[in-house]
Amino acid sequence: MKKTDRTYPERLNALREKVADSRKKKKRHGGQKESGETFPPKPPEDDIVWLKRLLSHNFRMPMAVIAGYGDLLREGSFTSREECLMVIGRVCKNIDYMDTMLKVLLNDDSGRVPSEGETFDLLGCIRVGMEYVNTIARRQGVKIQVNSAQPAVTMHGDRIRLIRAFFNLIENSLKYMKRAGIIHITVDKQEDTAYVIYRDNGEGVEAREAPRLMEWRYQGANQESGYGLGMYLVRETVEEFGGTIEVRSREDEGMGIYMTFPCDR
Q1: Closest CA to 16 of 8, 6, 4, 27
Q2: Does 121 lie in the same domain as 108?
Q3: What CATH number does the domain containing 22 carry?
Q4: Number of structural domains found in the chain
Q5: CA-based radius of gyration for the chain
Q6: What pLDDT, on a 0 to 100 scale, did the predictor assign at position 184?
Q7: Is 13 in the same domain as 56?
Q8: Which residues form the domain of 75?
Q9: 109 lies in the same domain as 77
């Protein structure tokens, strides 16, 4: 892990330079976004199959919370009435979330919640995503660290979707690390851009395979259970926020994911 940590300043500077270069090119082209890395388009899918997979990804996060708190209650981790009421409240909150998601995914407009224009803290989103997998991480012996010199990084957009993106990232690491370890999430901010460097010290993948992990339904050589949608949905979320994402990895050196997001000054 020490070897990858030493590259953090270089990676951060490279991200800053990439954003600055992109803005210069956009300005030269009259505000038109210049085409960058392209990915194979999502092929037509049977509606029922797609809905099943989308439901799976939307429901894994709240189900992980409910299952985690259920396990802790069975183990007797909460003894006071106040603690038990707190847990029941969080379980009910996640049941309400699943009810809302069902209405949204099934196009029930009466249950639709606004997803645009919400103001929130990026660091808060990351920590909520962590909370959903804390029980699993502890049992696996994985420590999750979030570091930032800023007390908050203000953004606008769909807060819940960004929480799901970080949940997917952490869950993906836990699935493929297969051992005790550490996940580092570092957040920096310069003017109107937030930089997020996400690293784990798991098994990693071959360098040439890393960029393909964001493709639709791509599963690497070390594939586990799932549909190959996690990283694809993360990329979609980052790009919908107007950000950028890059995946780098080497075998036995873990995974590095480098993201930028527009944010408030």
Answers
A1: 8
A2: no
A3: 3.30.565.10
A4: 2
A5: 19
A6: 95
A7: no
A8: 44-113
A9: yes
The whole-number pLDDT of residue 113 equals 46
d(CA 26, CA 244): 14
166 in the same domain as 53: no
Q: What is the mean pLDDT of residues 85-109?
A: 71
Structure confidence at residue 33 as a pLDDT band (50, 70, 90): very low
Does some domain include residue 51?
yes
Q: How far is CA 105 from CA 46, 122, 195, 237, in A?
A: 15, 25, 31, 16
Residues with Cβ within 8 Å of residue 246, at least 6 apart in sequence: 211, 257, 258, 259
What's the pLDDT tens digit per position in 109-133?
444 444 556 899 999 999 988 887 8
The percent of residues above 90 in pLDDT, for the chain, comes to 23
The pLDDT score that the predictor gives to residue 92 is 85
Give residues with Cβ within 8 angstroms of 96, minimum separation 6. none
